[in-house]
Amino acid sequence: MIAILLATVLLNVQKCGVDLTVESDAEGVDPARSTFVTLTLRSPRGVAATPPRLRERVRGFSEAEEFAEEPVSGKDGSVEQTVRWRLVPEPCADDYAIAPFVVETEADGKKDAFWAGPIRFAAPPAREPVTGGMEVDPAKVLPPLSWRLVGWCALGLLGVLALGAALVALVRLVARKVREHRMSPIERAWVELDRLLRRGLPGRGRYKEFYVELTMVVRRYIQRRHGIRAPHLTTEEFFAELGRSGLATPGQEAKLREFLTSADMVKFAGVQATPEMADDATASARTYLQGDARSDAERGGARA
């Protein structure tokens, strides 16, 4: 409930035995604050009165909130009903008023009604005219320079540079993948083999990783060139599939078996490799790739 000090009687009507009073906390309207209105309806014994709905009757107010109190009965049987309203003025409205409204009554089963209003509020006084020149934008005050500010700026710059470098690397990676995807199987195998050798894994003692990558270069070439899922098969499963396909000559199959078997000894049997063994394995891989590519070229020429 909102407690306000009422000062101005805006309307007082006595009809149908009902006394209607409308009061406001101020005679005029101030656009900077809400206007509070109290409607009091007193009806004698045997007369029932319904407080009017003012929400649709206000003019010049953007909002109307209603706060109804509990009816109060007097000793003589009369009933007093109080409804408080909070009205929010609209700036620069043409008129601030409450349009005429209806109060309904009922006595001895007979309904009646009467009109009341309108209620007008004094408009706010006109503002004084603005004089003087146009206001100039004030100068912007920059924060004082400090090591903390410099640190945050440097950190932000490093973040932007790191993000830019990551985007450049991503673009290069995607471009490389697209370029390699368009290569022939043998060209792609040479690129992968060259990339592996430039990593220098044997020189750092990482023989097992080197043999895994070296055999995968050969297996991926076989899959792309001959359609055998070599990277997903064990060595024995791969040679069984290769024998059924008839794609390799006995000599090629023997060299390939020797290469993959020696690589499996390093990868799975714990054999300690040496730089010479790594060089021999690389030479075996090159020999197989060159021989298979030459055989494909010869078969292609024979078909032509």
Question: What report would you give on this structure?
Answer:
- The chain has 304 residues and is an alpha+beta fold.
- The protein has 2 domains: 8-120, Immunoglobulin-like (Sandwich), CATH 2.60.40; 180-303, Up-down Bundle (Four Helix Bundle (Hemerythrin (Met), subunit A)), CATH 1.20.120.
- It has 6 helices and 12 strands.
- It has helices spanning 147-181, 185-198, 207-226, 235-245, 250-267, 275-303; strands at 8-15, 18-24, 35-43, 47-50, 58-59, 61-68, 72-73, 79-89, 97-98, 101-107, 110-116, 119-120.
- The strands form 3 sheets. Strands 1, 2, 3, 6, 7 and 8 form a 6-stranded antiparallel β-sheet that branches. Strands 4-10-11 form a 3-stranded antiparallel β-sheet, with no helix packed on it. The protein has a 3-stranded antiparallel β-sheet with strand order 5-9-12, with no helix packed on it.
- A hairpin with a 5-residue loop joins strand 7 and strand 8 (79-89).
- Helix 2 packs antiparallel against helix 3, helix 3 runs antiparallel to helix 5 and helix 5 (250-267) runs antiparallel to helix 6 (275-303).
- The longest helix is centred in the middle third of the chain and has 35 residues, at 147-181.
- Residues 1-5 have low confidence and may be disordered.
Provide a quick synopsis of the model:
The protein has six helices and twelve strands.
